[in-house]
Structures are given as structure tokens and as C-alpha cells.
Amino acid sequence: MIQANGPARPRLQVSCIQFEPVFGDVDGNVARSSELIWDAARSGSRLIVLPELANTGYVFESAEEVAALAEEVPAGPTSKAWGALARELGVHIVAGIAERAGDALYNSALVTGPDGYVGVYRKAHLWDRENLFFRKGDVGFPVFDTALGKVGVAICYDGWFPETFRQLALGGAEIVCVPTNWVPMPGQPEGEAAMANTLHRAAAHSNGVFIACADRVGVERGQPFEGQSLIIGPKGWTIAGPASRDRPETITAVIDLDQAAAKQLSAFNSVLSDRRADVYG
């Protein structure tokens, strides 16, 4: 990892694309997301994040529905389409996808870039009825060493677990991309900001990482989604967004990844080196 006192890297423009996938319309969702990726790339973004299950929609009613829409990664048509776009535009894309690997079905995120397929992350913590259809992720919390920097990935409910971001930070992640489909939380007061905004701001602060969250909007099979995509700096302050609750939009920030490499809160304090693993049990 490049240290804070090493050579400065160029600043990086990041975009999170908030849109409304149509359930089951894989071709249409890939086409629409590709248009939005084009727009973000034209504006100068080199790291672009799409929502969770951006190619299929979210509210599955049976494992058979998942199996009918899931694809191999990176051999499937969605991976190939997004991969070709990343190569053409010279960008890195992190996008939620329904993955089929043999007999297993995963809620996954594809990472692809100008030089081709980078890797896949499989959601570790399954939310609600996802447990009926998907298998829990089996790849841990990989950190992908890209030309842009060290990129980690989490998906939606993963963000409720501090261990997710701590593992990624310990693995060297400088930015964590979060494809997500946030829904209202039990007991959420009317008009209250998404709980996820608080959780991810805290995670960025306590781990010294940038976090880029791309949520979806709309109502699918009766399930409303929260929107409010945001990009957070390594001190926990929001630097883009939150986006609206109900409108497609793209939020963008220009960031300095060297700020995440430092991990410093003060001259005496680093959020990683101050850890007391000897007393945690």
C-alpha cells in the first residue's frame, strides 16, 4: 500500500449510480446501467458503482426465479457486457449481480476494469428472505489491488457488521464500494434518514477508509427502497450525497486515496495501529 508520505497519486473521481432496476428485465437493466456508466465516464469518473442485484432486480419469490436469472461470473452475458464497457471507457465498475456458480446461487458484486475481469465478492451476510434463495458468501472479504488503488467491496447488510469494514481495512482497502438495496428499518420514524447512512459514516471514520454506497430507488413487488446513496471520506464526513429517496441520480466525488492510506486521527492516533488486540479476547 502506498504510504501517506510516499509519492502522491492523481486524485480519483468516483460515481455512485442510483437507479431503478426492473425486476427480471436483465437486458433492459444492463442497457440502462450502461447508459448511466457512459454518462459518469464522460464526466471524468474512473470508479463507478452500481446497486445490489443491478442486473435482475431484488425481490425474488423463489429459488427457481433466482436460478432462471443468475449468471456465471465472469462468463455470463452481464459480466461480458459490463466488462466490455469498462475496457472501452477505461474505467473500473463495481456492480451487483446474481451469480450462479455450479449449483450455488450468490448475491454477488462483479469488479471489472480496463484490463478485464478483476474479481467477484459474494455477500457474506444475507438479509431476510435472501436466506431462502442465496448461499452465504464463501470468499471472505477480498481486497482487489487495482491500478486505481486498493478496492474492497461489501453488499448492503454487510454494512451492519463492524467486522466487515475492519477486515477490509486490515487487508489494506483504501475505498470500499457498496452496491446496496437499502430498505426501511423496523421502527424507522417517518422522514428519518436511512440507518445505513449513520452506520457507513461510522465505519468510514473508525477504519479510515472511503466508502462509496450505490443504492436503488423505487418500489418492487411492494418493497420500497431508501435511495440516499452517498460517498464518505475517511474521517466519516459525507463528501457526496445523500441522494434523494425516490429519484434516479448519479452522485460524484473527487477523492485523494492517500488520505485513506494515512489512517490518522491525530499526531498520536491511528485507527488501526491503536488497536489493542491483546485485550480484545
| Mean pLDDT across residues | 95
Characterize the main sheet. Answer: 6 strands, mixed
H/E element sequence: EHEHHEEEHEEHEHEEEEEEH
The first-to-last residue Cα distance is: 28 Å
Q: How many strands appear in the DSSP assignment? A: 14
Q: Number of folding domains?
A: 1
Shape: globular
- Looking at CATH, the homologous superfamily is Carbon-nitrogen hydrolase
Give the name of the CATH architecture: 4-Layer Sandwich
Strand content bin: 25-35%
Strand order of the largest sheet: 5-4-3-2-1-14
Find the structural class using helix and strand composition.
alpha/beta
Radius of gyration over C-alpha positions, nearest whole angstrom: 18 Å
Question: Level of helix content?
Answer: 10-25%
Protein name: Nitrilase family protein
Domain CN hydrolase: 12-257
Organism: Methylopila henanensis
Keywords: Hydrolase
What does this structure look like?
- InterPro entries: Aliph_Amidase/BUP, C-N_Hydrolase, C-N_Hydrolase_sf.
- With 281 residues, the protein is α/β, with parallel strands linked by helices.
- It has a single domain, classed as Carbon-nitrogen hydrolase (Nitrilase/N-carbamoyl-D-aminoacid amidohydrolase), CATH 3.60.110.10.
- It is 24% helix and 25% strand.
- The protein contains seven helices and 14 strands.
- Strands 5-4-3-2-1-14 form a six-stranded mixed beta sheet. It has a six-stranded mixed beta sheet with strand order 6-7-8-9-12-13, with helices on one face. Strands 10-11 form a two-stranded antiparallel sheet.
- A hairpin with a 2-residue loop joins strand 3 and strand 4.
- Helix 5 packs parallel to helix 6.
- The longest helix is centred in the first third of the chain and has 17 residues.
- It is globular.
- The mean pLDDT is 95.
